[in-house]
Amino acid sequence: PFNNLRKQHPHHQPGRKHFAVLLDPDNLDEASCLNLLALSETHQVDFFFVGGSLIMTDNQASIIRLIKENSSIPVILFPSSSLYIDKQADGILLLSLISGRNPEFLIGQHVLSAPILKASQLQVYPTGYILVDTGRQTTASYMSGTTPIPYNKPAIAACTAMAGELLGLRYIYLDGGSGAQQPISPDMIAAVREAVDIPMIVGGGINTAAKAQVALEAGADVIVVGNHIEKNPGFLAEVSHLIASYNVALDVHR
Ligand code: 1GP
After folding, report:
1. Atom nearest to 206 CA in ligand 1
2. Which of 5, 145, 161, 180 could crosslink 205 through cysteines, CB 3.0-4.6 Å?
3. Ligand 1 center to residue 224 CA distance, Å?
4. Residue 19 to residue 76: CA distance in whole angstroms
5. What is the fold, at CATH topology level, of the domain defined by 3-8+16-248?
6. Torsion angle (degrees, nearest 10) of CA 228, 231, 235, 236
7. Is 11 buried (19+), middle (13-18) or exposed (0-12) by CB count in 10 A?
């Protein structure tokens, strides 16, 4: 995944699993951010995703600046709207909310963003964003005014991902929403994996190494963890070790 960033990342090999740490600008002060940056460098995090469904502070620009000054890990924007484009970042997930039927998040925000993105150096990653109902309404589904895909309907997720791939989207992001009560089911991840060839990002509610492992084994290419790392920075090392052992096993069988 993230082709144009591979060159910047010395650890990349095709087929590898990747680890993205989601940084929510509302939940980070400078000290906790610096702590996470140091841990992320030590444990070879692949990407920082920066954003959130509803941001109440104006911290995003200073958080990105802090990352760029203190880390070489690529910063990829994970924006809820065109308001959150920041040219200091390396790239942007240009999210099309294909699980929903709200034209604003299928094309409206993209029209507003297009001239800014075209004039920027940001690497654009066209991403089919699929929200999944993991038990309670999330900020993302409420704020986007969309209905997430029911938890036990992997076929709907698979057909949605297929449609996204056929439309030319380059990545699929299956998201249970930040702090989800349960992560997306392995059945759904596997169904999407089977349905498309493009890289699959999976996040939402991953708060144990076992849950991360389930998602990786079901076919996730990129695991995203936000909430639980904010609460327990030590979890970053756990997921990183898991991904490293997964990649080592992959290399051995190559
Ligand atoms: C949310 O997928 C991300 O959009 C990460 O979720 O904060 O639950 O790890 P968590």
Report:
1. 9
2. 180
3. 6
4. 13
5. TIM Barrel (3.20.20)
6. 90
7. exposed
Secondary structure E strands in the chain: 18-23, 47-50, 75-77, 91-97, 123-131, 171-175, 200-203, 222-225
Instruction: Please indicate whether residue 179, judged by its CB atom, sits closer than 6 Å to ligand 1.
Output: yes
In angstroms, what is the span from residue 236 Cα to ligand 1's centroid?
13
Least confident interval from 57-71, 125-139, 154-168, 239-253: 239-253
> What is d(CA 102, CA 129) in angstroms, rounded to the nearest whole number?
13
Residue 215 near residue 187 (C-beta atoms within 8 A):
no
SS3 172: strand
What are the sequence ranges of the domains in the chain?
Answer: 3-8+16-248
Task: Decide: 93 in ligand 1 pocket, CB within 6 A.
Answer: no
Which tokens is 156 given?
């709907």
As a whole number of Å, the end-to-end CA separation of the chain is 19
Going by alpha carbons, the residue nearest to atom 1 of ligand 1 is 178
Q: How far is the CA of 151 from the centre of ligand 1 (A)?
A: 16
Determine the atom of ligand 1 nearest the C-alpha atom of 202: 2
pLDDT score at 249: 84
**Of the residues 174, 224, 229, 230, which should be mutated to test ligand 1's pocket, given the most ligand atoms within 8 Å of the CB?**
224
Q: Which residues pair with 172 in a beta bridge?
A: 128, 200
The predicted structure's pLDDT at residue 14: 56
**What's the gap in Å between 204 CA and the centre of ligand 1?**
4
Closest residue by Cα to atom 2, ligand 1, is 203
Average pLDDT score over residue span 172-182 = 95
The total number of residues written for the chain in this structure: 254
